[in-house]
Amino acid sequence: MISSDDKQKNLELLQKTAGMTANQRLVVMLYALHPTDRSGAVLETAANLAKLVGMAPPVFSRTRKQVIEAGWLEETERIGHIKYYRLDPKRMGENVVVPLRRAT
C-alpha cells in the first residue's frame, strides 16, 4: 500500500515533469516507482523496463537517453555492457550534501 507521503511525492514528481513528453514522464515515473538497490539504482535491463510499460525497446532506450540528457537520470554502475541508472536525487529535492561538523 502506498503511504500518503509517497502519493504526495509522486504528485510532486508529476508536477515537476509537466513540460516533458508523455514517454519521458513515463520513464521518470518508472524509475521513481520501481524497486531499487541501496544506492537508488534500478537494477533492471532496458528491455525488461520497456516491456513493463509496453514500449518498444528502441523507443524506451531513445526516451531514456533524452531523460538522461535532461538531467533526470544518472548512471550508477555498469556490469559488462549493461548500464544501470537512478533518478538524480537533486531532481527529487533530496539534500545530497552531508553537512560537515567540527571534530571534537
Keywords for this structure?
104 residues, alpha+beta, Arc Repressor Mutant, subunit A, two-stranded antiparallel ribbon, 2 strands, 44% helix, globular, Replication initiation protein, RepL2
Describe this structure in words.
The structure is a single chain. With 104 residues, the protein is α+β, with helices and mostly antiparallel strands. Helices cover 44% and strands 12% of the residues. It is built from four helices and two strands, in the order ααααββ. A two-stranded antiparallel sheet has the order 1-2. The chain is globular. The mean pLDDT is 86. It comes from Streptomyces alanosinicus.
Q: State the strand order across the main sheet.
A: 1-2
Structural class: alpha+beta
What is the average per-residue confidence, as pLDDT, rounded to a whole number? 86
Order of helices and strands: HHHHEE
Number of helices: 4
The N- and C-terminal alpha carbons lie at a distance of: 44 Å
How many individual β-strands? 2
Count up the domains: 1
User: Briefly, what CATH class?
Assistant: Mainly Alpha
By CATH's scheme, which homologous superfamily applies?
Answer: Winged helix-like DNA-binding domain superfamily/Winged helix DNA-binding domain
Q: Which parts are unreliable, with pLDDT below 50 for 5 consecutive residues or more?
A: none
Helix content: 40-55%
Topology:
Blueprint: H1 4-16, H2 22-33, H3 46-53, H4 57-69, E1 73-79, E2 82-87
Antiparallel strand pairs: 1-2
Protein name: Replication initiation protein, RepL2
